[in-house]
Amino acid sequence: MAIPFRQKTRRKLVGHQLLYAISVFASLGVFLFGYDQGVMSGVITGPHFLKFFDNPDAINVGTMVAVLEIGAFVTSIGAGRIGDLIGRRGTLFSGAVVFTIGGAIQAFTIGFRTMVLGRLISGFGVGLLSTIVPIYQSEISPPKHRGALACAEFTVNIVGYSVSVWTDYFCSFIDSNLSWRIPLFIQCVVGALLAAGSLLMPESPRWLIDTNKDEQGMEVIADLHGGDVHGTLAKAEFQEIKDKVLTERALGEGRSYKTMWKKYQRRVLLAMSSQAFAQLVIISYYAPRVFEEAGWLGRQAILMTGVNSIVYILSTFPPWYLVDRWGRRPILLSGAVVMSFALGFTGYFIYLDKSWTPDAVVLTVIIFNAAFGYSWGPIPWLYPPEILPLTFRVKGVSLSTATNWAFNWIVGQMTPYLQDMITWRLYFMHAFFCLCSFVLVYPETKGVPLEEMDYIFGEGAVFTFLSLPKLY
């Protein structure tokens, strides 16, 4: 078939400059939900916050923190249809606007109910953003650099988390309700920047081609390849995507969730399980409470969380280099081992309750977060968009992201209660989930073009338990 194109590009940025510009703006989305998840961990320990909300009990605190995950769960499921209907860029814009509205309600809250409402609305925005940003990034990234760009995106997520923690720390010196309103208001600023930036970004070429906007799709592909509309690589990529779209249509199976589940059950379950385990092992959202439990109190706990977040950021840099060289599986396996040991020692040191316990717990939590930031933090966001085909990518990723937020809600809601009830034993529970994640086998996807993922998925059992896959 003839490949449609204009005679010249209409964009000033092309090639790697365009790719990196897109990545920076899209990363504001992951910065937002990193910031939003982290900001509450420091806010809820502040004296002015506690006084304003009349010293809320563990259930009310858990509700304020975890209700965001309920909203995110709802819209992450809906994003499966929204992303196909209005495109990746339209979904990104919508998520940013909704998030900003929710942030404003939180910052100007008048009580517990409005705070919960604001968190819920922000969650609606986060659900859209957390589903569509990884898809958008994967669909505009070249295969050899797809893993690195996705891991860089996760780094921005942790930067958002770190910025929120340090904002909480410095605002804790403010002797008024501004100590917690300012951190919450900053969400609105970043959300507005993302909404504005999304209007300047190109649409995903794969979505354009899938919706018969071939000429526009070819334009974006050409721009990503340097702006040469006659380039061999650009034409070849367009043809590969178009052929895949036509092949899927020729099968006549439709695009329902039922069809996806019937045809790609293994891939969907792998995508969902990766997100589930990423949440079952994490302890970052309540890090200040972890440090308080170990003996650090008040502002000191937030300070230790801030120090921990710096190491957390640094740990996300090695995957930039390793993920497209080592592959996804070795990183997941090695991360699971280190995390399980770090969590086990965290619980053990809290149990001993010695004079050196606070320092020891800081060390083990830092080791845990470093291992998580290097492995189970970034890879579960990269993996689902990679392994799912274009026709079901948004729907499949919406289910995996919904799984993330469902388990995120469970962890967010239950952690304060479990910290009070089973204390140090909680960390052995998280360590057990790390070991479970170790024995779950994920096929390697490094360097494989999105349209060729079919070749690495054969027929067979969904899970292979109690076997140790080779690290190559």
From TrEMBL:
| InterPro entries in UniProt | MFS_dom, MFS_sugar_transport-like, MFS_Sugar_Transporters, MFS_trans_sf, Sugar/inositol_transpt, Sugar_transporter_CS
Give the way it sits in the membrane. Answer: Multi-pass membrane protein
The record's section on SUPFAM superfamilies has: MFS general substrate transporter (SSF103473)
Q: Which residues cross the membrane?
A: 18-38, 58-79, 91-110, 116-136, 148-166, 178-200, 268-288, 300-323, 330-351, 363-383, 424-443
Reactions this protein catalyses: myo-inositol(out) + H(+)(out) = myo-inositol(in) + H(+)(in)
Coiled-coil residues: none
What are the protein's UniProt keywords?
Membrane, Transmembrane, Transmembrane helix, Transport
What's the domain of life for this entry? Eukaryota
- A molecular function (GO) term: carbohydrate:proton symporter activity
Q: Which Pfam families match?
A: Sugar_tr
Looking at the record, the residues that make up the Major facilitator superfamily (MFS) profile domain are 22-449
**Keyword Ribonucleoprotein (UniProt):** no
Give compartment(s).
Answer: Membrane
Q: Name one GO cellular component term.
A: membrane
**Into which family does the record put it?**
Belongs to the major facilitator superfamily. Sugar transporter (TC 2.A.1.1) family.
PANTHER family listed in its UniProt record: METABOLITE TRANSPORT PROTEIN YDL199C-RELATED, PLASTIDIC GLUCOSE TRANSPORTER 4
> How is this protein named in the record?
General substrate transporter
Upper lineage: Eukaryota, Fungi, Dikarya, Basidiomycota, Agaricomycotina
